[in-house]
Fold this protein.
Amino acid sequence: MSIKLSEPFERCPQGHYKMIIEEVEYNEDFGKVNIKLRTEDNHVVNQRFGLKNQDGSVNSGAMNMFSWLARAALGNQVFEIEPMELIGHYIEADVKHTEVPKRDNPDETTVFINLTNYASSEGFDTPDTDIDEVLA
């Protein structure tokens, strides 16, 4: 019996997008937050934040970026959240690709996908997009 393979991986192209936050994983012990976002045209972007340094202190750069994303999703007057509160909220952001040499083989490169310029969003432009369908 044959197995039908998934579609080839396609990274989210650079540009400005509206996105919904679909999943959030938070490991409080290590200060790691992983956020899965989906664009209206079904591209997935994962954002990872290491909120703690190895010595347990706050990683202020990562905390600032995470706070910017959280406030874009929930409103600028938010000062403390439970990470799961982000699920189902929308943001706008620019997708940027950064190509860097691989650590184990500098002759090859890898591409990191980063989000910048987070902003609040009311949702997708398509009025009939149902949040339950997007999150399913």
In short: The radius of gyration is 17 Å.
